[in-house]
Structure formats: C-alpha cells, structure tokens
Design a protein that fits this description.
By secondary structure, the chain is an alpha+beta fold. The protein has 18 helices and 14 strands. A hairpin with a 3-residue loop joins β9 and β10. The protein starts with 18 loop residues before the first strand and ends with a helix. Bound molecules: adenosine monophosphate (AMP) and magnesium ion.
C-alpha cells in the first residue's frame, strides 16, 4: 500500500534526546472525510490506484507506509508567557517525504494517540478542529501566505471526550519542517549545548543552506528567521488573520504559519479583536501580533546565546542588538504591505500618514476590514457606515489624488488586486460549515473550501462578503477595554 512516499528521514538521526520513536496508536474504524488530491499530486503522491478505504487505513496510522520511521518530537515553549516542557503529545511525524522537486516535507499525523509527551491529554483530536485546520491552512495557502498544508482528514470511529463527547479524527499535516522556537528552547533549558549546535547545523542545512559557511552561523540564522517572521506577521495582518495562540512552540523556524487552533479572520477593524476564549488578557489580539512575534524572537535569541559567541557578555550584546532590529524591519514590511493594499507604488513622504489615517477612520466606524479595501479597489461593497463618514470621503479624495500622481494607475489597480482578497473565511461562516460537516453533511464545507481557494477572484457571492452581524461577532469575539491596544503596534510604528 504505497502511494509514492519517498522517505528520507533526517530528523530521526538527530540526538536521541530530541524525539521518541514510536508508532501511532491504531484506531477503531477509519473513514476518509476529505483528501487533498490536488496537493497530493503536487508533492508526487499517486492516489489513482488506491481505494478510499485503503487511504483511510493509511492515513489513520493503522498501516504504516514503507520507509516511515514514526517519531514524536520533543520541544518546550512559552505558553501565554509561561515556560513549559512540551513535545508532540498528540502528533507523530511519519518521516520526511522527498518531493519530485527535491523538497523535504514532514508528513505528520495530528490526533494519532498518546506519546510520552502527552501529560494528562488523550493524544486524540476531534473532527471539527481538524477540519478547521484543513480549511484555514488551505485558505492561507491560496491567500499566498506561507503555511503548513493539509493532506487529509480521517475520522477514527472513536469518541473523544471533551466537555461533550465528540467525533475523533486525524489530520495529516505537511510542513517544511516542525522545527520551532520551542525546539531550540528545549535543548537550551537542558543546557545540552552539543545537541543545540547539531540542531543549528541541521536547521541551516534544511532551511537556510546559504548560511552554511558563514562565520557567525547562529546569529545569521536568527536574523534570517526574524526576517521571515516579520514578513509573515505583516502578511497575516494584510488579510485580517488572528492566529490566536502565538506561543513559542507555535512559531516555526521555516516561517510557515502553524497550528490552527482558535484562529480566525477579523471582520470589523479593531486591533483589540480576540477570538480565543482562553485569551482573557488579549495577549494574542490582532494588533498585538507584532509585539508577540518580537517577544518570541527574543526567546529564540536567548536559546541561541551559547552559539552566538563564546564570551557570554559579547553573546548577550549580540542578541540584544539583533532583537532590536525587529521594529524597523517589521515597520518596513508592514508599510510595504499596506502600500500594496492601497496601490501606492511610488514613494511619497505622506504615505505613512495616509495609512495611519485610514486605520483611525476604519476603527471609529467599525468598518469591515476586507470590504474597505474591496471598496477602494472597485467601488462596490455591501452597506457600511464608513463610506458615508465625511472623514472617509475626505481621505478617499486624498488617496485618489495620490494613486493618480507619479505612477501608473493600471499597475496600481493590478497590485491592489493581488493583495486584497475579496473572500476571506469569515468566522461565522466557518463555524456554520464545520457544524454541518460534523453532522455528516460535507457539501457546505466543500463549497466553502472551493471559494476559499480563489480568494482574489470576485465570484460575487454576497454571503461570503458579509461580516457577521455586529452583535453576533461581539458575542463570539472579545474586544478588550485596555486602551494600550487600541492602536496596534503596526500603526504605532508609522509616522
Ligand atoms: P497546541 O495547542 O496544539 O499547540 O498544543 C500544545 C501542547 O499540548 C502540545 O505539546 C500538544 O502536543 C499538547 N496537546 C494538545 N492536545 C493534546 C491532547 N489531546 N493530548 C495530548 N497532548 C495534547
Ligand atoms: Mg502547537
């Protein structure tokens, strides 16, 4: 039962302390819920001669593909600011598959049973959150944002006990790797500098081979990851994405978005928006994401300190200096991203103010984030009070003048089209299709997924463009009252 996996398992050769080799725990009666045939083909898998039933057996872990060397990875992390020893408590990496293009990809089961890192958890996952990860990760990919991918979801035929009994499922996640800030923290806290050094070389070989012969490899790796992360966060903010659990174990070294738990897309522009019910302090609110990325990167730098320089004082100075770069690099990425959303190609000293003013007007009007930019692109959107506000009308006049001066208007429109999605997976609709899928009706889920795969095309489905009714979203998400969050970090950076 091989569908073309070519395993070339490198992680299994790292120091023993970094993983535990073990198989997924078999499940009662696997049933295939969804399979990403398009993606499977892209990575060199061939499913033409395998039955749906056999796919379910394979992707539940009931039968292992040839060449796999299943393991649970060890890592630690800061969860909501508190350091904890973690590890794959409900996931197993089958191995790394070599694609026809020569890329190594982790094939991971999520929800595959208990491991030595499970603590009090059952090692299992429920159907709805696994389908949510499948849907949002695929949507993010088609929004052109680096992300782990989803290959399939298999129902286990078992019940997982949460507050209520739920249907169990396993997601097959595909990632450039599962190396995280927390992987480095894990070895640092153990003071295992020899393994840390091996991990550094491994990471460079796998993700940043251009740094191989650099004199200050660790510092260069840190700077490269920082650049990937500032771009990623700016990209999240471009499409109103709120990750929801930016713990250091959920920040990848590859720069891919990972772990779609309580994530959601914001409708109404408010930097304080939080969807996760457990995030009571708003730590991972929309506008706080850059602060947290910077905080997580500071933890990454701390973990690397022994490799920055042999003299500790010098190493610490280098770490501080490197982390200090975050603000200016992020500001550059954020401004560039926003300029594209507004079709500002040439440079103009007033651009930062123009961007900042728009955010203020959007915030005051509780404007729908996505629809505001859609309006600027093509003038047609559902009703929104924003468009009647005299401040907005005045702002729009300035913006119109700006995009027609000193640059090609058509080129500006084209750039806007590539950067402003028309369709985002609005949370109230996501909840709806997940609920129906859970009840066994997958059609709404599949239809929604199809639309999410073409986010920049105006398919004129008005339902997809409507934000949740204001009071309904207020019930689902929290808007914090703390005033320091009103102006997001991103906007705060601007002139
Ligand atoms: P996450 O919130 O998915 O990033 O997971 C954080 C940590 O909790 C990771 O170490 C997971 O492996 C672990 N975890 C989450 N859910 C479970 C579960 N049902 N059983 C065991 N460990 C879990
Ligand atoms: Mg995680």
């Amino acid at each position: 039962m091989n569908i073309g996996f070519k395993f070339n398992n490198t992680y299994a050769k790292l120091p023993e302390v970094m993983a535990t080799k073990l198989n997924p725990v078999p499940v009662k009666s696997p049933k295939l819920t969804i399979f990403n045939h398009e993606f499977a083909k892209e990575i060199g898998l061939d499913t033409a001669n395998i039955s749906t039933n056999d796919l379910a057996i394979l992707f539940s872990g009931n039968k292992l593909p040839e060449g796999s060397e299943p393991l649970a990875q060890a890592y630690s992390g800061h969860q909501f600011g508190h350091f904890t020893m973690l590890g794959d408590g409900r996931a197993i990496v089958l191995g790394e598959h070599l694609t026809p293009k020569g890329k190594l990809l982790d094939i991971q089961f999520k929800g595959s049973g208990r491991t030595p890192y499970s603590r009090s958890g059952d090692g299992r996952a429920a159907l709805k959150p696994m389908l949510r990860e499948y849907l949002i990760s695929e949507a993010m990919h088609h929004l052109n944002i680096p992300t782990t991918r989803s290959l399939c979801v298999v129902e286990t035929g078992e019940i997982v006990q949460r507050e209520l009994p739920l249907k169990g499922a396993i997601l097959t996640r595909v990632a450039s790797s599962h190396l995280r800030v927390g992987t480095f923290q894990y070895l640092r806290v153990k003071n295992d500098i020899s393994s840390l050094s091996k991990l550094l070389d491994y990471t460079i070989k796998r993700h940043y081979p251009e740094l191989k012969d650099k004199e200050h490899k660790a510092l260069e790796l840190f700077k490269a990851v920082l650049k990937k992360q500032t771009k990623l966060i700016a990209d999240w903010m471009r499409v109103a994405f709120i990750h929801g659990v930016m713990n250091t174990d959920n920040m990848t070294i590859s720069g891919e978005t990972i772990d779609y738990g309580p994530c959601a897309f914001m409708d109404y522009y408010d930097p304080r928006t939080v969807f996760s019910s457990i995030d009571e302090q708003g730590r991972y609110a929309y506008g706080n994401q850059p602060y947290i990325a910077e905080w997580n990167l500071a933890r990454f730098a701390e973990a690397l300190i022994p490799l920055f320089h042999k003299e500790e004082k010098k190493a610490v100075d280098l770490a501080i200096e490197a982390v200090d770069q975050f603000k200016s690099i992020f500001k550059g990425d954020f401004t560039e991203m926003m300029k594209k959303k507004l079709g500002l190609i040439s440079s103009n000293n007033d651009d930062e103010k123009l961007i900042k003013d728009l955010f203020e007007i959007m915030f005051k009007n509780k404007a729908d984030y996505t629809n505001t930019f859609m309006y600027l692109m093509n003038g047609s959107v559902p009703q929104d009070s924003l468009f009647k506000d005299s401040k907005f009308i005045e702002w729009e006049k300035k913006w119109n003048l700006r995009i027609k001066t000193g640059q090609d208007h058509n080129e500006a429109k084209e750039i806007m089209k590539q950067n402003n999605p028309v369709i985002i997976p609005r949370n109230h609709l996501v909840e709806d299709v997940l609920e129906k899928a859970n009840e066994g009706d997958l059609k709404p889920f599949n239809d929604f997924l199809s639309l999410s795969k073409k986010p920049y095309e105006d398919l004129s489905d008005d339902k997809q463009k409507q934000p949740a009714p204001l009071n309904a979203e207020d019930r689902k998400s929290t808007r914090l009252n703390s005033s320091h969050l009103v102006i997001s970090y991103a906007v705060f950076c601007l002139k």
